[in-house]
């Protein structure tokens, strides 16, 4: 692809104190793609996701979004550029109802399409419609994950950053969530950058993927290419795709 990527990460190094977590990462995400980053726990996947969003900051390298350098921008400015993040651990507002959580997501674009987007979310995740007046904290893990993604989508992002959406969820719920992502990509052209330990599902879903080991990208290719590679199967797929 010769087009300019929607998101481009170049030579990014991120530190926690004196410990280097990302050791010069290069990644591209083109408009309309689902790109997945897989790797073991502690490889630096979530750190990359948070660095893109400005916290922690990249100490070296550049992060470009839609042709604009966002490396030094404050997080709240990044959020206004139509990048939405659904962070690891389903960080919803537990005391707020499902409806109020979705309102928080829509606040970024001043509720411009609120009613319409609410219906879209209820079509995508019918469970949320059933639970609309329930507090976020009383939902099941799967419902909370649906809510976290729906809340991110209420801001009508061009790029959705999804961190470990399948973590701790039953296989059936994981399938529902991945199906929803696929549907959004197919029907609305939503660009998705997905960090995931569930390599099998993530690579099946993704157009392209990257493998991260200890803060370094060690492999990249189409989802299918990576799925078929022996070293990927051995490290991430053995016994893990039932």
From TrEMBL:
<dbReference type="InterPro" id="IPR027417">
    <property type="entry name" value="P-loop_NTPase"/>
</dbReference>
<keyword id="KW-0067">ATP-binding</keyword>
<feature type="domain" description="ABC transporter">
    <location>
        <begin position="7"/>
        <end position="239"/>
    </location>
</feature>
<dbReference type="InterPro" id="IPR003593">
    <property type="entry name" value="AAA+_ATPase"/>
</dbReference>
<dbReference type="Pfam" id="PF00005">
    <property type="entry name" value="ABC_tran"/>
</dbReference>
<dbReference type="InterPro" id="IPR030660">
    <property type="entry name" value="ABC_branched_ATPase_LivF/BraG"/>
</dbReference>
<comment type="similarity">
    <text>Belongs to the ABC transporter superfamily.</text>
</comment>
<dbReference type="GO" id="GO:0005524">
    <property type="term" value="F:ATP binding"/>
</dbReference>
<keyword id="KW-0029">Amino-acid transport</keyword>
<dbReference type="InterPro" id="IPR003439">
    <property type="entry name" value="ABC_transporter-like_ATP-bd"/>
</dbReference>
<dbReference type="GO" id="GO:0015807">
    <property type="term" value="P:L-amino acid transport"/>
</dbReference>
<dbReference type="GO" id="GO:0015658">
    <property type="term" value="F:branched-chain amino acid transmembrane transporter activity"/>
</dbReference>
<keyword id="KW-0547">Nucleotide-binding</keyword>
<dbReference type="InterPro" id="IPR052156">
    <property type="entry name" value="BCAA_Transport_ATP-bd_LivF"/>
</dbReference>
<protein>
    <submittedName>
        <fullName>ABC transporter ATP-binding protein</fullName>
    </submittedName>
</protein>
<keyword id="KW-0813">Transport</keyword>
<dbReference type="GO" id="GO:0016887">
    <property type="term" value="F:ATP hydrolysis activity"/>
</dbReference>
<dbReference type="InterPro" id="IPR017871">
    <property type="entry name" value="ABC_transporter-like_CS"/>
</dbReference>
């Amino acid at each position: 692809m010769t087009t300019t990527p929607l998101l481009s990460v170049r030579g990014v190094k991120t530190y926690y104190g004196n410990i280097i977590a990302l050791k010069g990462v290069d990644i591209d995400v083109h408009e309309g793609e689902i790109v997945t980053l897989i790797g073991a726990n502690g490889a630096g996947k979530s750190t990359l996701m948070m660095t893109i969003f400005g916290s922690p900051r990249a100490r070296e390298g550049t992060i470009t979004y839609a042709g604009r350098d966002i490396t030094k921008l404050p997080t709240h400015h990044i959020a206004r550029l139509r990048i939405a993040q659904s962070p690891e651990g389903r960080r919803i507002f537990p005391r707020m109802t499902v409806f109020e959580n979705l309102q928080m997501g829509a606040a970024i674009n001043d509720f411009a399409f609120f009613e319409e987007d609410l219906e879209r979310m209820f079509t995508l995740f019918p469970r949320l419609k059933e639970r609309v007046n329930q507090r976020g904290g009383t939902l099941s893990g799967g419902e909370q994950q649906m809510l976290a993604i729906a809340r991110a989508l209420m801001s009508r992002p061009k790029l959705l950053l999804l961190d470990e959406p399948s973590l701790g969820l039953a296989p059936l719920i994981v399938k529902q969530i991945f199906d929803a992502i696929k549907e959004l990509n197919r029907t609305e052209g939503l660009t998705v950058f997905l960090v995931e330990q569930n390599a099998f599902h993530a690579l099946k879903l993704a157009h392209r993927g990257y493998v991260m080991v200890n803060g370094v990208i060690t492999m990249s290719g189409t989802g299918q290419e990576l799925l078929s590679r022996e070293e990927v199967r051995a490290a991430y797929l053995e016994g893990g795709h039932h």
